[in-house]
Amino acid sequence: IRDVERSRGLGDVYKRQVFGERHIYVQGDLATDDCRYALPDSASPNNVVGQDLAEQLVGLCYQKGMPHLVVKEDEHFRFGPGERVWSRTALIVGVEWGGSALALRFSILQEKLPFFVSKSVLKTLGGVLDMGTNEITFKRLGNATEPLFELDSDHIGITLYKEDEDPPRLSQITLDLCADGAAVALEKQKHRNGLHTLTRKGVPHAVDL
User: Fold this and answer.
1) 114-152: per-residue pLDDT in tens?
2) Which sign, positive or negative, has the C-alpha torsion 145, 150, 156, 159?
3) What span, in angstroms and rounded, lies between the C-alpha atoms of 169 and 58?
4) H or E stretch covering 14
5) Rg of the Cα trace of the chain?
6) Coil, strand or helix: which one is 123?
7) How confident is the model at residue 203 (pLDDT cuts 50, 70, 90)?
8) Using alpha carbons only, what angle is made at residue 36 by residues 193 and 74, rounded to the nearest 5 degrees?
9) How many CA atoms lie within 13 A of 69 on its CB side?
10) How many CA atoms lie within 13 A of 163 on its CB side?
């Protein structure tokens, strides 16, 4: 991988330029102090996270040997009627959902935010949430399922960091797909084939507080 430099507290930063302006939808105070989980957010078209939780997850990734990168980006978001805020870095982290390894890219903001998994990622993976059984089915991963958890914030979370399991194995190709702008990248070629590669295209989103 090219042009590596070190960023304090957030692992390797890659000199990549990613474009676009972002707005996202959130309601109320959804902040959670648990970096092990992400909130599936059907209103947000972009993965985002606050700086504090991003740093916490990076620390766990180092301890466990989970694949992760931090890359430079240049995107801005608008929270409701407020001023624009900028994401200068993004966290790429490897996870395993439904037995399949994949990489997710989260824009890092200074605001206190949980990990949000966007509706675009959920649609790309064919995600179907079942609140009765507390699980999500990924139709495009062979109908594989992943449990959902009720968090202290009363929201539903999906696991990013699994303490009792080995870290997912990701190739450099998969990490590079996210480093180049993809919001989600799948490790298995059979799952990659036929899937739309979701990238940032500068489509505006709004954050509704």
Assistant:
1) 999 998 899 999 999 999 999 999 998 999 999 999 988
2) negative
3) 16
4) strand 12-14
5) 16
6) helix
7) very low
8) 65
9) 28
10) 4
Helix, strand or coil for residue 102?
A: strand
Query: How far is the C-alpha of 205 from the C-alpha of 130, rounded, in Å?
Result: 26
Instruction: Tokens for 38, please give them.
Output: 């992400």
- Lowest-pLDDT range of 1-5, 57-61, 67-71, 169-173: 1-5
CA distance 33 to 169: 27
Q: Copy the structure tokens of residue 92.
A: 């790429």
Question: Taking the CB of residue 27, how many other CB atoms lie within 10 A of it?
Answer: 10
> Which residues have a Cβ under 8 Å from the Cβ of 148 and sit 6 or more positions away?
40, 129, 131, 134, 135, 136, 156, 157, 158
At position 1, the amino acid (one-letter code) is I
Q: Which residue has the higher pLDDT, 121 or 200?
A: 121
Q: 207, 43 in Cβ contact below 8 A?
A: no
Which of 16, 87, 94 minimizes the C-alpha distance to 57? 94
Q: Could you tell me the sign of the dihedral formed by the alpha carbons of 43, 60, 33, 11, in that order?
A: negative
Residue found by looking up tokens 């702008």 in the block? 181
Predicted model pTM: 0.81
